[in-house]
Task: structure prediction
Amino acid sequence: MQSNRSSIPVYMIGAGGIVNDAHLPAYQLAGYTVAGIYDMDTAKAQATAARFGIAAVYNELPAMVLAAGDTGIFDIAVPADHLTAVLQVLPANARVLMQKPMGMDYAQATEILSITRTKKMTAAVNFQLRYAPFITAARKLIDDGVIGELCDIEVNVNVHTPWDLWKFLYESPRVEILYHSIHYIDLIRWLAGNPVGVFAKTVKHPLMHELASVRSNIIMDYGELLRANILTNHCHIYGLQHQHSYIKLEGTKGAIRITMGVLMNYPQGVADQFEYVVLEEGKAPAWKTLPLQGSWFPHAFIGSMQQVMDVAQGIKSAPDNSVEDVIDTMACVEAAYLSEGRHRILLKDICK
Result:
């Protein structure tokens, strides 16, 4: 079926930083039509509309819903604990893309899932790292068997993140895993399926007491043959020289190493890099570089919206990033928080 995604109007709910920096730039690149925008702060919505040439600014959400009818897609980018209230206003059978996370915790996620089921919505969550150009390339190599059986996944982030860009996080009881490492949890699920279980520890930093957590260690348990680890430190304040941000995927026949440049020297970023190696009998391993077009921000946001558009046009029956799928990402996040302190062995119990 021929796709004409530009014919499907998008209605933006929210006009914050992620909308201006990623959603709307991505949609401009893709040629998607943003027909209207609403934000509780009308002045903010008007400024965003002027910047991106959006024709209609709505003072009230019900007015947007009325104008949208049943032809458009609602792109919701509001704080996670506001999602249920917004979904209640949207009509039955609505097409919806929600900015991650899918609620503040698993309880809210199941409530969101229930609302979307009751209203028979086509509902997806914007876990856009799945659709970053470097992940699309990696997924193809894995699916084609180029690197053999996937047996080791490591995400390692050692950067300085300017948390003050997101003021609402200072009020959140959950920060690093819920708003950042959640991307990597979802990515690992996207590549390897659901884990058996999750172990995690997430901590504060002496210079960032106001935030609930800024560093995490997460182990996703896939049994005896696949190791999956996430290690994040957002507090490397010592310059760019020793910052790093990579995804490493090892298989039985080859390996992939991806540098996620957007996280380093944030928000300016550095260039992404995609390197891979395939073992050849009788030859020393030789790493190659694969050229890429686009990056995580903003290009991956095109893919998230495309999933919902393809359902709207009958190209597919359900989005890959549907609420039915990513409820399991939220379950892994919940498991990570619940695991803290539960399974550790205290030294005093050994050294008696």
